[in-house]
Amino acid sequence: MSDSNTENGGSGAGLSTSPSKALFGKFCICGGKGFHIRFDNGWTVSVQFGPGNYCDNYDMQIGRDDKKAGEQGSRNAECALIDPEGNLIHRNEWGDSVSSRSTPADVLALLNEAASKPNVSALPPQRSGGRQEQVVGHSEIVGGLE
C-alpha cells in the first residue's frame, strides 16, 4: 500500500514515528491502535492491532475504523522486532518481518527477547547475511525509511 497511512503503521496502519527517532526506554502509542516499546539496548518491539494489521481487525476499514479497532482491541496482534538502526528483522518462524495473529504470550516472549539482546554499540561490527528491512511502519513500507 502506498496511501496516506504509510507513515502510520504496520501493514498500512499503526506507527506514528520511526523507531530510530524514538528515545531509548520509550513507550509510544501508534495511531491509537498499537504501540512501540523501545528498550535501553536500542531494540524496539512494535505491537499493532488496527485495520489492515494481521490480527482480528484486519478487514476493518483503514482510516475509518482505526479508533474503533483501538478501543475494542483484538485477541491477537501483528508484531515486529526492530533493531537499534530502525530495521525490521526478518524472522524465519514468521516467514516475514512481521508476525500474524500473535497471542499475548507470543508478545510477551518477543518483549523478553528484545529486552535481553545485547546493546549493539557494545558489539564488534559484523557482516549480515540475513535479510533486514528499513521500517517506518510495518510490512508495506519496506525500504521506505524517510
Please outline the helices and strands:
Elements: E1 27-29, E2 34-38, E3 44-48, H1 66-72, E4 78-82, E5 87-89, H2 104-116, E6 132-134
Antiparallel strand pairs: 1-2, 2-3, 3-4, 5-6
Shape: globular
Order of helix and strand elements from N to C terminus: EEEHEEHE
Strand-residue proportion: 15-25%
Secondary structure category: alpha+beta
Structural description of this entry:
The protein has 146 residues and is an alpha+beta fold. It has one domain. It has 2 helices and 6 strands. A 4-stranded antiparallel β-sheet has the order 1-2-3-4, with helices on one face. A hairpin with a 4-residue loop joins strand 1 and strand 2. The longest helix is centred in the last third of the chain and has 13 residues.
In brief:
The chain has 146 residues and is of the alpha+beta class. It has helices at residues 66-72, 104-116, and strands spanning 27-29, 34-38, 44-48, 78-82, 87-89, 132-134.
Keywords:
single chain; 146 residues; alpha+beta; four-stranded antiparallel beta sheet; two-stranded antiparallel sheet; disordered N terminus
